[in-house]
Amino acid sequence: MAHKYDEGVGPAIARGARIDLLATVELLHTVLTESLCETVFAATRVTERIRDWTLKALVDFWTAVILRAPQSLTQALREAQEDPTSGWPTIPATSKQGFFEHCKELRWEFFANLFEAFLTRILPKAKATFCSEVSFLRERFPEVWALDGSRLDAIAHRLKILWDVRSVVLPGCLEVAYDLFRGIPRILHFDPDAAKAESKRIFAILGAIPAGTLLLGDRLYASVALFAELADRHLCGVFRRNATVSLRKVKRLRRFKKGGDLHEDWLVDAGSGVKTPVQRLRWIRVRRQRIWYELLTNVLDPQLLSTEEAISLYPFRWTIERLFFDLKEVINLHCFYAANPNAVAMQVYAAALVYTAMRVAQGIGADRVGVKPDSISTAKLFPRVAAASHGWACTQIAEREIKKLNPTVKLRIPDWHKRPFASVALADILVEHRDDTRRSRRYCRGRKRWKSFVHVRGGRKLIGR
């Protein structure tokens, strides 16, 4: 398949541009420190005791699991304990059973709070250069985020309490707010109840969204109740119209044709006012080849968001679908190493930590070589980052051993960033645009019959609360 590079990428390739692969590892090590973990543990703990497996030890091990994707946690623990030169982080000299007990008993809120603290520290380093096509909105809205949710994949490993459950068991679900311009999840909320409706999960994260933010979402979010909540919190929304929401036309703002498409912009009142007050919204419609595409927004000033801008902005909502694809398929979050929801949450947030660090490093690297960060393929970048991480870990082990053998010698340490394993040619990780042929996704009949882990008898008791 031929490459179709974005404008400006060609000259960067001609210059032999390379992307630093160790930047992701360095961000994890410099931001995810012992002091940060201790601060989060002290602020979150209730009755938990500090054991050999501290929060920092768990984080280091889980992030290494995400990067190296071992066949099982038991294998990873055995390699880390038996071979100090295997490249795994140093772990406490406790039994494997101690690790699994800690994963079962430690509340998942620790990792959720750690991810929030990590975001706070890494955010100043993130380049707001993603989705540059709609960067003009940064002058009008402090933030532009996309909203979406997803259920996690089925638990493959069966606990004893699941032996008699014939349905597919899901360990939880996610609700995510994705930063369009920084290319990272700004809110990642894990809920152990996979059966909880997405339309209700969104209300759990609204309080963490800064005022003035413009939110994008599909038709599931276009409810009168959510628009009322957005108004109370001084938030803006652009959502695909939900046909179940009744609209009453108040005034037509614009009607015009552009490029063969018919555009309409109406001021409407949404809802009946029985349960929720009637909301004054804009109803934006465009007809393309006899098909109407409709949006609802509470941005009532066309000067702040015109009809054409709203229509051009909405397709960028699909960038959050790419985030879910990257987490599940690229970073292997479709395969869980443990069945307990607490351990599942640890793996989820560890994957989010690695993904966020990689995306921040991707933005920094793209800015240095003068290309759009969206032109770099995450699916091609992550395996190379994982390999570079392992190579760097091996060099650090060798460096320590050489220093032990030569205590009186002042060694000259090479600059590992200049070694071949530490970078990759830009041409090798660029996005390849797909042709018109689309593969149909494999359908799993078992997904029609599923059950949330917390609804299994005894399942709720295994979640540390």
Beta content comes to: 15-25%
Specify the biggest β-sheet.
9 strands, mixed
Number of strands: 13
The CATH topology, please? Transposase Inhibitor Protein From Tn5, Chain A, domain 1
**Secondary-structure content class:** alpha+beta
- The best one-word shape is globular
Distance between the termini: 51 Å
Major β-sheet strand ordering: 5-4-2-6-7-11-10-9-8
Helix content: 25-40%
The CATH class turns out to be Alpha Beta
Number of domains: 1
Round the Cα radius of gyration to an integer and report it: 24 Å
Helix-strand topology string: HEHHHHHHEEEEHEHEEEEEHHHHEE
CATH architecture group name: Alpha-Beta Complex
Unreliable spans are 1-5
What does this structure look like?
With 465 residues, the chain is of the alpha+beta class. The chain has one domain (30-361): Transposase Inhibitor Protein From Tn5, Chain A, domain 1, CATH 3.90.350. The chain is built from 13 helices and 13 strands. It has helices at 9-14, 22-31, 34-44, 55-68, 73-82, 96-105, 109-122, 198-201, 224-232, 307-313, 319-330, 341-369, 378-405, and strands at residues 18-20, 144-151, 168-170, 173-179, 184-191, 214-217, 236-240, 247-258, 261-270, 279-288, 291-297, 423-425, 450-452. The strands form 3 sheets. It has a 9-stranded mixed beta sheet. Strands 1-12 form a two-stranded antiparallel sheet.
